[in-house]
Write a structure and sequence with these properties.
The chain has helices at 3-24, 26-48, 59-73, 77-105. By secondary structure, it is mainly alpha-helical. The protein has one domain. Helix 1 (3-24) crosses helix 2, helix 2 runs antiparallel to helix 3 (59-73) and helix 3 (59-73) packs antiparallel against helix 4. The chain is flat and about 60 Å long.
Length: 106
Amino acid sequence: MSNLQLRVISAVVLAVVTLSLTWLGGLPFRLLCAAMTILIFYEWSRMCRPVAATGLGFLPEALLLVFVGGLVAGLPASWLLLLVTVMVVVTVVVGSMRQTSMRQAG
């Protein structure tokens, strides 16, 4: 089987699963969104964050779990937007505090 055939078959299977969960709605759809969120964040953080970067530790992953919990719980979009805003502010503040303390120590 060629690479193209495998990709087409995978795309059809994923489309059926995605459309089915979207049609069902409710908790199955929220779980699909949570899984997509986790996978996208994992790929993005592995591409963008250097291996040696320890400035934020596990804070981004912990905040992601909070967001996914709100997503699965069915919070309204306005609350999720507010939650994302708060998480970004927390990340920036913690990052700048750790960067300042690293400068003072070094």
